[in-house]
Amino acid sequence: MELFSNAERAHVLVQALPYIKRYTGKIVVVKYGGNAMVNETLKQQVMEDIVLLHLIGVKVVLVHGGGPEISELMTKLGKVPEFVDGLRVTDRETVDIAQMVLAGKINKTLVNLLQMKGGNAMGISGMDGRLLVAQMKDPRLGYVGEVTEVNISPVLDLLEKGYIPVVSTIGCDREGNAYNINGDTAAARVAGALGAERFILMTDVRGILRDQNDPESLIADVSLAETDEFFKEGIISGGMVPKVKCCIDAIQRGVHRVIIMDGRVPHAILMELLTNEGAGTMVYGEEKDDE
N or C end: fewer C-beta atoms under 10 angstroms in the chain? Predict the structure, then answer.
């Protein structure tokens, strides 16, 4: 027995029409990681969302991390993962492992999944075309990179040719040293360089919560000015602090809107972009209703 009639399906599509018109031809950057990446069912749904957007003319750029997979391979190779302030301590051997995992296995797996769903994808790393030029962030961390320059031409070239760029966050310096770059930070810089219409940051929480112990206390939208108060009041705390700082950085660099959303929710990307319900917390600049 079918859950929806043809008329109901048609109604859903018609309701999505204004949103399709809004985003067709626009750039949307998705930072993909967390539980949505390790859960196979959710992974399939994220790829379906991206391919659907691609097929209706949205220019989607997928930036991915892969921390758990790096730790897993390190353990198999007899290395003990070590972190300082949430960042992985990365010696030369570890950055080689990160490069194998991010630019190799994960990147090509995602490209393959997108193509199996009907998309046209191409995988690159931050080293390709010197997309992400970096320098050592902190000597204590080793080869953890701080982005100093973004050369966005490789991504624009792929978008122009109709590809979904899939970007892994390994960068390099002018001397050829490779660096592991925080995925959220790298994605924010890519989104800023593209002047993206939307930057979607997929996490393992619903968004910014007014009460950390109450998942129903989601703050639907917040301005840059309000984030200052939320930092002072402790509403934005813990692991949400660096994520919101990435949102602020992206908006200051030219992104129109940033969405912090729960990647564990099925088809959250489509809910955010193609319905009036939205998903997660929207961070915006000066004017909320300038669309």
Answer: N
